[in-house]
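User:
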Amino acid sequence: MTFTLQTGSAPMLVSMPHVGTDIPLDLQSSYVPRALDIEDTDWHLARLYDFLPSLGISVLQPRYSRYVIDLNRPPDDTPMYPGAANTELCPTHFFTGDALYKPGHEPPPQEVQRRRNIYWQPYHDALAGELARIKAIHGFALLWDAHSIRSQIPWLFEGKLPDLNLGTASGAAAATAISDAAASQVDGFTHVVNGRFKGGYITRHYGQPASRVHAIQLEKCQSLYMQETRPYAYDDALAFGLQPTLKRMLHASLAATQALYA
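Assistant: Predicted structure:
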């Protein structure tokens, strides 16, 4: 399987599209050696969110690295942030801007299409199917797209990111009450709503409030719970301090969604 889906009883799905760490053996020789360290992974999110099953929340995770294909990019590879540095459907650069592939080994269009069929489409079929299942049971669904990133990446953004970055495609993907509820639970951390990261393809595509499906992305700084440089170690003490805030944000956003349809 190219992904794992754990279904729950709550009207909520958490997607973690960038936690995959595998690169198929037949592709590895095309990358520069540094790429096999998969430094731009959303490290340890499953561990950080390990409380989700106890809350009855469904969880979707891929097996393969974003270096193979970026599950949070449009299938036609349209840039998500026009005028800014963007990663592609099949990325060709690290977040530092350095080349990901050996010269002449970048994936041609037919290879991009092959990866889209094998890795991208099954993940999105599962995502759409789980949202449909949740909506059929509860009458609505809330999608939480979970991410993490190094706090400073000059190639992608200036300066240091706020600790917690909520995005709803500037309100198009979720009712304002939902993002307001999530933001109201942030305590002891800096945060912004619809700042540099407004939500990627998953948030923008699946968030359809008129159809009773809301989507919100949380991009968090990795410095909040782990070591941002190799060996990318998980920090139990930091994570323990962050998890209560994450739980409150999830609870509040779900409660706000439920209130819309009470």
